[in-house]
Design a protein that fits this description.
This protein has 108 residues and is α+β, with helices and mostly antiparallel strands. It has two domains: 1-30, no CATH class; 32-108, Winged helix-like DNA-binding domain superfamily/Winged helix DNA-binding domain (Arc Repressor Mutant, subunit A, Orthogonal Bundle). The chain is built from five helices and three strands, in the order ααβααββα. The chain has helices at 14-29, 32-41, 48-55, 59-71, 90-102, and strands at residues 46-47, 75-80, 83-88. The chain has a three-stranded antiparallel beta sheet. The chain starts with 13 loop residues before the first helix and ends in a 6-residue tail after the last helix.
Length: 108
């Protein structure tokens, strides 16, 4: 059988493109520190100073991870005075909830 007949193997098919997007997303959320930040942000909006206290990561590492999460469309930010507050986007909320629901199943 011609392998190009499978949608997930054909680079010109939408399914293949979805696989590429999913792979990129999994690389972003597959990091323990990023998952920790997503977990914290799933409970509300926080500034970096609050994330430093709760995530036990350095300010520069948190900022780097937040930049990646923003680029992936999972996190948004808003400035209030001199502080920038971060929260999950609707997509970030949905993906974070889906990921953490996996831990309640037999995968953990």
């Amino acid at each position: 059988m011609n392998m190009r007949s499978y949608n997930c193997s054909n680079p010109n098919h939408a399914t293949f493109k979805q696989i590429q997007k999913l792979s990129a997303l999994l690389k972003i959320v597959g990091d323990t520190s990023r998952l920790q930040l997503l977990c914290i942000l799933s409970q509300g909006t926080h500034c970096v100073c609050e994330l430093i206290q709760n995530a036990t990561l350095s300010q520069s590492l948190i900022s780097h991870h937040l930049h990646d999460l923003k680029a992936a469309g999972l996190v948004t930010s808003s400035r209030q005075g001199q502080k920038i507050f971060y929260s999950l986007t609707a997509s970030g909320q949905q993906i974070t909830a889906s990921l953490f629901s996996l831990t309640t199943k037999e995968y953990a």
